[in-house]
Every structure is written in C-alpha cells, then in structure tokens.
Design goal:
Layout lengths: L9 H20 L2 H18 L10 H32 L16 H8 L7
C-alpha cells in the first residue's frame, strides 16, 4: 500500500517557485512589468485554488506554471475583447446606430433620444 503524497504548505511552495513562475511569465508575455502583475495574479489565484491541488497527481511547481498559463491566457482574452470593443466604438462600424438626422426607420422621438447618447452609449 502506498502512502499519499504529503501536502506541502502553500507559503513554502510559493517561496520556492516565485522566481520560476515570474521567469515563465516574462518569457510568455515579453514584458517584465506585465509579468510582475500576472505573477501577483497567479499567486492570488493559486492561493484561492490551493485546496484543489492534489500532490498525488503531480508536483506543485508544475501546477503553479499551469495556473500562470491560465492567468496569462485570461489576460490576453480580456485584453483582446477590450481592444475589439474600443475599435468598434472608435470606428463607428456597422454596429453604429443612425443619428437623429439619418434615415434608419426609427421614429422621430427615438432618433432624438439616440442623438442625445454619446457614440459609446449608442
């Protein structure tokens, strides 16, 4: 009968792996300042999810690198959505609502109300 792997303390794992996680994120994102922020976010998420770590399934260092990868991917997805949203608003693309003086099949009252909104609100 094998004994289950002992669960390490989070503080010990964090201290032992801080530099490796930061180096990984620096390499992944290519920006030291962003990597600093993502490293903090990684350890914050890892602490919240520490109860899910199973030492019988693998090393804590590997688990932390996976957490860091997910944090970085979440950042890139969020940043991509933000950039796309800003691009749509700044270009007045196809989602733009016709203004009060434009034809669009809207009633005069609705066109007037839309005209009082900013471009971003429309």
């Amino acid at each position: 009968m094998t004994t289950p792997a002992a669960r390490p303390r989070f503080a010990d794992v964090a201290e032992q792996n801080l530099d490796a996680v930061h180096r990984y994120l620096c390499h992944l994102v290519g920006d030291r300042h962003l990597a600093d922020d993502l490293t903090s976010a990684t350890f914050e998420r890892a602490l919240r999810d520490w109860k899910r770590f199973d030492p019988g399934r693998g090393r804590a260092s590997v688990w932390l690198i996976e957490v860091a990868r997910r944090v970085a991917l979440d950042h890139f997805r969020k940043d991509g959505r933000r950039r796309a949203r800003e691009q749509r608003y700044s270009s007045g693309g196809p989602e733009a609502v016709p203004g009060p003086g434009e034809q669009g099949g809207f009633s005069g009252d609705l066109r007037a109300a839309l005209g009082r909104l900013s471009r971003a609100e429309r």
